[in-house]
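debug: dumping io for the single-chain case to check the tokenizer round-trip. Nothing else runs in this session.
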Amino acid sequence: MQEKKLLVTGATGFVGQHLTPALAERGHRVIAVARHPMAFGPAISQVLIQDVTSVDWMALLEGVDVVIHLAAIAHRGIEVHEGLYDKVNRQATAALASATARTGAKLIFVSSIAAQSPSSSDLVLTENDLCLPSGAYGRSKLNAEIDIAASGGKYVILRPPLVYGRGVKGNLRKLIQLARLPFPLPFGNVPNKRSLLAIDNLISAIDLLIQRDDVRNEVFLVADATPVSLPEIIASLRHGMGKPPNLFAIPPPLLVGFFRTCRLTDTWEKLAGNLVVSIDKLNSIGYSPAFATSQGLAAMTSELPQ
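debug: decoded output
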């Protein structure tokens, strides 16, 4: 493996906390850029910034071969103004893309499947589909992709679905809390399929793209090999906790009505709607996800305090 000098933005976020040390362990020289310090160890250089929208990127990119851009405002429990999404997720990304184009560094941008699709789709998604971004967050990610492509530099864009692993947040954390409850759950008859992405599989995909200098100016969907249903997700989470699945069946229309009554329709779509992505294109350049979703989910919850 050829050693490269890497710069990782958003290095202390959920993905960054896993990715940054993993890349260093693979022999790369890593510069971690973040707003808050983290004890990565002496092998990783840290650069603290106040705001990703006002960084002098040229000063940081000297000698850098590849930039992995993770820094972004993701989905939050509170309302985020579309202008803030645009400022952080698009404008800051465009500035970084312009700088990498001038230096010749390769930019790996971790976008989101939300740039391409709403939270559920009955079609198997591919890179050739028309993009129908999901809300302000998805629009900001898609617009960032457009600005990257217009920068004239070398880039690769990854569109992952929900990424899971130790420290995961958002809806999957809520589902873990639900799975920890001691009583049966009424999701045994939900027939959906969703693609998820283990953090270790995402790291493998990024490392592959770091090594493949010939792969550039491409968009890839990235996920685990096989989509899973909501019952399978809960069973895997509970398996990692040393518990049986403990699921029973209620007709899905009744569950939909319950979630709608509770004004949780969007949450239901994210949990029980279909969202399957094809990884054929990424497989064709050597991606081979080592972790199955059931294995990854169980491993994640097995580390939690019981």
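debug: round-trip ok. The longest strand covers residues 29-34.
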